[in-house]
Structure formats: structure tokens, C-alpha cells
Write a structure and sequence with these properties.
Elements: H1 5-26, H2 30-54, H3 56-62
């Protein structure tokens, strides 16, 4: 399947975050936009590491 629900959810979340960031910068909240641009990738990186470390299927395949 070309577009899975997870892919559509991630794409939609990216568009929403971009729109929120642009809106906050246009209304004068530059600090919040900067925090969003910094915190979201760090949180995604941490979630990816958590997923890799706790996924039993990946542990089973790797051993």
C-alpha cells in the first residue's frame, strides 16, 4: 500500500506543526516557534530510540 495510515498521520502532523510555527512567528511569538523547531526533532529522536530499544520483534530479529 502506498499511503499507510502512519505515513498520513506523520505528514499531517508535519503540516500542522509548520502551520502553527508560521502562525506563531507572524503573530510575534518567535521564541515559541524556535522552541517548537528545536523540541519536536529531539522528541522524535528520543521516541525512535525508545521504539528500537523496546520493540520485541527487533530484539528477536537481532539475536
Amino acid at each position: 500500500m502506498l499511503f499507510t495510515p502512519t505515513l498520513l498521520l506523520a505528514g499531517g502532523a508535519t503540516l500542522v506543526l509548520a502551520a502553527v510555527d508560521k502562525t506563531l512567528e507572524d503573530t510575534g511569538y518567535h521564541l515559541v516557534g524556535t522552541i517548537l523547531r528545536t523540541a519536536i526533532p529531539i522528541a522524535a529522536f528520543a521516541a525512535g530510540i525508545y521504539f528500537i530499544e523496546t520493540n520485541p520483534l527487533l530484539h528477536w530479529l537481532g539475536r
